[in-house]
């Protein structure tokens, strides 16, 4: 099988190539048997690698890693095209429509409109979310746990919900409770979870992103450790 060498290739070429790779008869033995579940972690890993490239501000690496993320988007979309549930064109159409609707000041749907700064509130309006439960349910479960905790707490606070463990004393209580449970037990796991949730809540009150703060602490630890002998 040959593919035309008509560079530069486009996003449409990417979809065509993946479609050929997944051809039931002539496709790649690995590519054609993959499912959403089997390559789920690949998507997350590629996204993390892209973020690392952004943090390094390396244009060559960014170009490569963003391409890998785009490939994951196209791969999952091709799976859906095979079943007839939606197409690549529908994915592109949907996100373009969303951007237009969320920028009425730019695209003229509401002349003179100053723009909405709270995108979460706008998304809730679009999707008909009204209650705290609706808002919390929409936070992705696949998010890193600390990031998800911060997101849940932010949304709960916006709804005026009282957050248990929202001060330093509660954090100290959670740490003390951890000392009283059996190591490697279900109780220890629960106590650690409560401690981390309280820490994320305290970070929110301090205006700090707990995920970024922990990442910086990780980097400081690695730097302090120095080169491995």
Short descriptors:
229 residues, mainly alpha, Helix Hairpins, 11 helices, globular
Report the biggest beta sheet as strand number plus sense, adding barrel if it closes: none
Give the overall shape.
Answer: globular
**Tally the helices: what do you get?**
11
The total strand number stands at 0
Overall pLDDT score: 88
Q: Report strand %.
A: under 5%
The oligomeric status of these chains comes to: single chain
Q: What class, by secondary structure content?
A: mainly alpha
Domain unit count: 2
**What is the top-level CATH class of the largest domain?**
Mainly Alpha
CATH topology of the largest domain: Helix Hairpins
Rounded to the nearest angstrom, the radius of gyration is 23 Å
* Parts with pLDDT < 50 across at least 5 consecutive residues: none
The CATH architecture of the largest domain is Orthogonal Bundle
| CATH superfamily heading of the largest domain | MazG-like
* Fraction of residues in H or I helices: 55-70%
């Amino acid at each position: 099988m040959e593919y035309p060498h008509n560079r530069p290739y486009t996003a449409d070429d990417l979809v065509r190539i993946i479609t050929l790779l997944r051809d039931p008869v002539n496709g790649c033995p690995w590519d054609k048997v993959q499912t959403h579940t089997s390559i789920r972690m690949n998507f997350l890993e590629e996204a993390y690698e892209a973020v690392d490239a952004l943090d390094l501000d390396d244009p060559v690496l960014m170009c490569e890693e963003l391409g890998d993320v785009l490939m994951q988007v196209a791969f999952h979309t091709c799976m859906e095209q095979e079943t007839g549930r939606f197409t690549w064109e529908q994915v592109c159409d949907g996100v373009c429509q969303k951007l237009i609707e969320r920028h009425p000041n730019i695209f003229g749907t509401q002349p003179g409109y100053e723009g909405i700064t709270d995108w979460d509130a706008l998304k809730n309006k679009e999707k008909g979310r009204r209650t705290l439960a609706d808002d919390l349910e929409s936070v992705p479960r696949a998010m890193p746990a600390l990031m998800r905790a911060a997101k849940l707490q932010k949304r709960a606070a916006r709804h005026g919900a009282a957050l248990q463990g929202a001060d330093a004393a509660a954090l100290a209580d959670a740490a003390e409770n951890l000392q009283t449970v059996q190591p490697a037990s279900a109780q220890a796991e629960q106590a650690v979870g409560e401690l981390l949730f309280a820490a994320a809540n305290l970070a929110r009150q301090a205006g700090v992103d707990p995920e970024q703060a922990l990442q910086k602490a990780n980097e400081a630890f690695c730097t302090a450790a120095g080169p491995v002998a």
